[in-house]
Each structure stands twice: as C-alpha cells, then as structure tokens.
Design brief:
Length: about 250
C-alpha cells in the first residue's frame, strides 16, 4: 500500500534535506559577498526606483537558473575545459560591467551639469526679481531642472540587465560546477537536486538584493538629494568599472 512506502521515502529523502541545509549555509556567504550583482541592484534602485531594482534582482535569480540548467546539461564542464570559451565569456562580462560603470559615471556627470544649470537659473531669476519686475519675476517661481539620472530603466530593461550581469559571469558557472556536486547525495536525481540547490541560492539572492532595493526605497528622501545621487552614481560606476577591469586584467594574464 502507498502508506507503507512513506518511511522508506523519508529515509531516502533525508540526505537531500541535509544537503539543502548544508548548502544554504554556504550559499548565504556567497550571496552577501559584495560583487557585480550588489552594485547593479544598488545602481538600478538609485536611478530607476524600487520596482526596477526588484526586476533586476529577478533577472539575477533567473541567471542562476540558466547556469544551473547549463551545469545539469554538462555545459559548464565544457566551458571549464575550453579555456578559449571561458576567456571569451569573461571578456564579454568584463566589457558589460565596464559599460554599466560608464553609464553610471555619465549619469553622475549629467546630474552635476543639470545642478549647475539649475543654480545659475535660480541666480538669474533672483536678480531679475530684485530689479522690481513684480512677483512673477522672482526666483521663487523659477522652474528647477530635474537633476536625477536621465537613463531610467523600465522593469524589463532592469530584468535584462540583471540577467546579463549574471549570465556573462562565468565564475557563477564554475562555482556551481565545483560546489554543487558536493551537495548532491549518492543515488539522488542529479537534475532535480541541482535545481533545488540553485533555487535555494536564487531565493537567498532575491531576499538579499530585494532587501537592498527596499532599504534604498525607504531612505529615498536621503538618496534623492542631488549631491547624494551624484556621489552614489560615481561610487557604483567606479566599482563596476573596477570589477570589469579586474576581470579583464585577470583574463589577459
């Protein structure tokens, strides 16, 4: 009867549950380590808001599943065996990170320029008002240009950015290839267990990166200050450029 199989199934699944718990502890450390994912979500949250940042985190999680499926299909083993393919993917990832960093720095420069123009506009309006042209000529009514980033992303664009950031990082595939087999019990279904482990990593990533997006949103009054936004754009842009350059230099060696 089906009921008589339950103890046997419980014993058979116990190693899988133990592996999931062990992998969760390791995955937490992998998740909270600063890297491109963190910088991309922070940058997206600052430039495009909470919804886009959450979509970026979803794209990163989807990238985890892409690498998980590739690992289950043996593609990551092929990538690891082919130095040329591995280096090509690393170069593509490095260029993409550097492009994202350039976008952030360009946004900071545009924001700084808009701020200077707004200050000059207020100064001119104030001078006109002092000359006695009436209430309509005072600086109080002068429009202030928007100093925020001009390159806002839609949710779909943010998802794509997160996905590409992860998929173009071959280290994710290599980590999966070297780490996941250690947590797959003997006689356990390889594909199913692999996807379970990847799901754990993806969920942890969503919680962590989603928390970052929500924290930035809650403190939006602070982060919306033009000077703060410029500094954050400069910081995240510099980090992304440095990460991309580091990957490129390491690949060239």
């Amino acid at each position: 009867m089906p009921g008589k199989r339950w103890p046997e199934d419980h014993v058979r699944l116990r190693p899988v549950f133990s592996s999931l718990l062990g992998f969760t502890a390791v995955a937490v450390l992998l998740t909270v380590s600063p890297g491109p994912d963190f910088a991309v979500v922070l940058r997206t949250s600052l430039s495009s808001g909470r919804r886009a940042a959450l979509c970026s985190a979803l794209g990163i999680a989807a990238g985890c599943f892409v690498w998980g499926l590739a690992g289950a299909a043996g593609l990551t083993a092929m990538l690891s065996a082919s130095q040329a393919a591995y280096d090509a993917l690393r170069v593509a990832g490095a260029l993409y990170l550097m492009w994202l960093g350039f976008q952030a720095l360009r946004s900071a420069r545009r924001s700084s320029k808009a701020g200077r123009e707004a200050k000059a506009s207020r100064t001119e309006a104030g001078g006109t008002g002092a000359g006695g042209t009436g209430a309509g000529g005072t600086g109080a009514g002068a429009p202030v240009p928007e100093t925020g980033p001009a390159d806002r992303q839609s949710p779909l664009q943010a998802f794509r950015t997160g996905l590409l950031t992860n998929v173009l990082n071959p280290k994710v595939g290599v980590v999966y290839m070297s780490l996941l087999p250690q947590f797959i019990p003997h006689d356990a279904p390889v594909v199913t267990t692999t996807l379970l482990l990847v799901a754990v990593h993806a969920v942890l990533g969503l919680v962590w990166l989603g928390g970052i997006a929500l924290a930035v949103h809650r403190a939006r009054a602070f982060f919306q200050r033009p000077r703060v936004r410029r500094r954050m754009d400069q910081a995240t842009g510099g980090v992304l450029l440095a990460l991309g350059a580091a990957v490129g230099v390491e690949t060239a060696r």
